[in-house]
């Protein structure tokens, strides 16, 4: 809050609104212990009420809301909702596709996009979003327990279940030469891994994971985090039996997607082959080599980038059904311009009514391409008329000079 107080002029403190939204981590806590979640929110609200700002409350937003807000943020800062026309009026851009949003957090992951195909009637993942007088039919789904952190816990739990020894576990996704120990509460203390707990579970027992740096085995084992069989080979299904229309159009992948790609020395748009090649190369490096490879080295993140890369592969390719042809339509970005891509901006825009559902925008009576065509036609006619007038003027002058020359010749005779 000290930085906020420094950035906001003191005379504006009382009129500066503060909104607080909590996402998947708090959603999990509320499911696991509603009283604890309520106490956390109460404590946070008490703190912010003591600050000199206009605090408007804290709430836990749903996964669907998180997905929608991420989509709004991405398209808002990309200018897909509004643009200035020739008269500097804000209008809805003609022929501009919206961009799908892929968000990878710690406890959940979201996919949101406008589908051109007819979606299932009354589908719970279909949302009507009205912005500036336009209605978008948005598919959005939030996968609880499939954020990067919770997914890795599920992966570690799976390794424990399939290991012949209960204390020393080989982890093909950890770098070669790396070893770390956890108590079982770290792995099984989450609601996401509750069903995987062993019968003799003791949260204080210690287990050691040793990295082998095997990208092939890592990819193979990470696939078991997902339940792809639940789709029963249906095309309109991602995983865990969740309905999803075919992905189409451009997408922006942010948060955990971006940070993992960045660790692989990738950003923006690139091919699936490049992603696979970079993943394989990174996973083959020994632990001792990683500090020189990563721009910012942090043990917790560095040990897990290999897992994250293969997890993202399965999520996007086998889950969301991106192919070699459609993968390059994904841009892995942290920000657009100077604006970070996250659900929080969309959340703020919604709460402060900065994106109204109704439209006060100027709408042309005809579509821009037709308007430009008509404008070009009349411009061409005007130029032809001008050219004809110039021709007449020159012809008149030439005729006048000829007559004068003739008269002078007659007079001289």
UniProtKB/TrEMBL annotation:
Active-site residues, Swiss-Prot/TrEMBL: 66
GO cellular component: plasma membrane
InterPro entries named among the record's database cross-references: GDA1_CD39_NTPase (IPR000407)
Phylogenetic classification of the source organism: Eukaryota, Metazoa, Chordata, Craniata, Vertebrata
Protein name: Ectonucleoside triphosphate diphosphohydrolase 3
Organism superkingdom: Eukaryota
Keyword Transmembrane part of the UniProt annotation: yes
Similarity-based family: Belongs to the GDA1/CD39 NTPase family.
Cofactors, names only: Mg(2+); Ca(2+)
Transmembrane regions listed in the UniProt entry: 370-394
Biological process according to GO: nucleoside diphosphate catabolic process
PROSITE patterns per the UniProt record, alphabetical: GDA1_CD39_NTPASE (PS01238)
Binding site for ATP: 106-110
GO molecular function: ATP binding; GDP phosphatase activity; ribonucleoside triphosphate phosphatase activity; UDP phosphatase activity
Native organism: Myodes glareolus (Bank vole)
Pfam families membership: GDA1_CD39
Keywords associated with the record: ATP-binding, Hydrolase, Magnesium, Membrane, Nucleotide-binding, Transmembrane, Transmembrane helix
């Amino acid at each position: 809050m000290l930085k906020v107080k420094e950035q906001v002029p003191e005379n504006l403190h009382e009129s500066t609104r503060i909104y607080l939204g909590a996402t998947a981590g708090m959603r999990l806590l509320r499911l696991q212990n509603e009283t604890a979640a309520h106490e956390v929110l109460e404590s946070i609200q008490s703190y912010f009420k003591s600050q000199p700002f206009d605090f408007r409350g804290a709430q836990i937003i749903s996964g669907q809301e998180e997905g929608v807000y991420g989509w709004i943020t991405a398209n808002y800062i990309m200018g897909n909702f509004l643009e200035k026309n020739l008269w500097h009026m804000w209008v809805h851009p003609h022929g501009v596709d919206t961009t799908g949003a892929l968000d990878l957090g710690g406890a959940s992951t979201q996919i949101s996009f406008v589908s051109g195909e007819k979606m299932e009637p009354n589908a719970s993942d279909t949302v009507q979003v009205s912005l500036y007088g336009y209605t978008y039919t948005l598919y959005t789904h939030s996968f609880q327990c499939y954020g990067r952190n919770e997914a890795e816990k599920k992966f570690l739990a799976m390794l424990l279940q399939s290991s012949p020894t209960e204390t020393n576990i080989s982890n093909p996704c950890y770098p070669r030469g790396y070893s770390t120990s956890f108590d079982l509460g770290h792995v099984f203390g989450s609601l996401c891994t509750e069903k995987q707990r062993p019968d003799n579970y003791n949260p204080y027992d210690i287990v050691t994971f040793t990295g082998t740096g095997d990208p092939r085995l890592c990819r193979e084992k990470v696939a078991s985090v997902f339940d792809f069989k639940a789709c029963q080979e249906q095309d309109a299904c991602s995983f865990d039996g969740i309905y999803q229309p075919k992905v189409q159009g451009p997408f922006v992948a942010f948060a955990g997607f971006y940070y993992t790609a960045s660790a692989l020395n990738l950003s923006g748009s690139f091919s699936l082959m490049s992603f696979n090649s970079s993943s394989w190369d990174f996973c083959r490096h020994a632990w001792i080599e990683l500090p020189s490879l990563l721009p910012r080295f942090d043990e917790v993140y560095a040990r897990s980038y290999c897992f994250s890369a293969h997890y993202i592969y399965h999520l996007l390719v086998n889950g969301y059904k991106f192919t070699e042809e459609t993968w390059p339509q994904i841009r892995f970005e942290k920000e657009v311009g100077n604006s970070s891509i996250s659900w929080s901006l969309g959340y703020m825009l919604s709460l402060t009514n900065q994106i109204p559902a109704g439209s006060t925008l100027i709408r042309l009576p005809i579509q821009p391409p037709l308007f430009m065509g008509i404008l070009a036609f009349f411009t061409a006619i005007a130029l032809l008329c001008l050219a004809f007038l110039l021709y007449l003027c020159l012809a008149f002058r030439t005729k006048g000079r000829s007559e004068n020359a003739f008269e002078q010749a007659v007079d001289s005779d």
